[in-house]
Amino acid sequence: MLEVEDLHVAYGEIRALRGISLRVEEGEIVALLGNNGAGKTTTLKAISGLLPPRAGTIRLAGEPLVGIPPHAIAARGVAHVPEGRRMFTRLSVEDNLALGAYVRRDGGIAQDLERVFALFPRLRERRDQLAGTLSGGEQQMLAIARGLMLRPRILLLDEPSMGLAPLLVEQIFDTIRDINREGTTVLVVEQNAAMALEVASRAYVLEQGAIALEGSAEALQADEAVRKAYLGEG
Fold it and tell me: Nearest-CA neighbor of 80 among 11, 168, 149, 165?
């Protein structure tokens, strides 16, 4: 479904991505792991059109995405849930969700609103509440739900567990599993490698803008270098 080949991205003279290649097949959850500054967020921004690559290709279902503006990439089915949630804090929960569907022209928006309320019952209870008054966990739920309102072919999640208590982290990742079971492909950037590898089928490890390791989640969980560097073992 999603193919990234030999992708190079720079911030001025700083090379953030150095020729990375990755793929996400339809129906998968794929994790992108790495320390701060490894290039994880940059990768998602390049895929969603927020950062122009210096070189390389990005394709969704065989169609090129490089050079297409972000709103057009979203219209093709790429939903990006950014790090830090980025709520419209002075708008209600329901208005934030409606904005998630802004590029859609079909008649299924009301149905999808019910779908996200079923996934996140707390948001139904808070539908008229200003987004800026929600707790951190509720804001993360809203950020994911807003992405789902696009009815995406692929959901890009950037650090969904950031700043959340362990119990909420488990709830968020359980919901990611549910979203995937319902048919949405997921590429998740996550520093909580242990949790990401529990839900993903495959993963890539980024180091200094390059792919250092890749493989099945099970293989990476068993890899000694990964266990020491990212799972806090050894």
Answer: 149
Beta partners for residue 79, in sequence order: 155
- Using alpha carbons, select from 179, 98, 113, 167 the residue that is nearest to residue 135: 167
Encode pLDDT of 41-92 as tens digits: 999 999 999 999 999 999 999 999 999 999 999 999 999 999 877 888 999 9
For residues 23, 25, 31 and 34, what is the CA-based torsion angle, rounded to 10 degrees? Answer: 0
Q: What is the CATH number of the domain that holds 161?
A: 3.40.50.300
Nearest alpha-carbon partner for 148 in 163, 160, 164:
160
Q: What is the pTM of this model?
A: 0.93
What is the domain extent for residue 66? Answer: 2-230
Domain count, the chain: 1
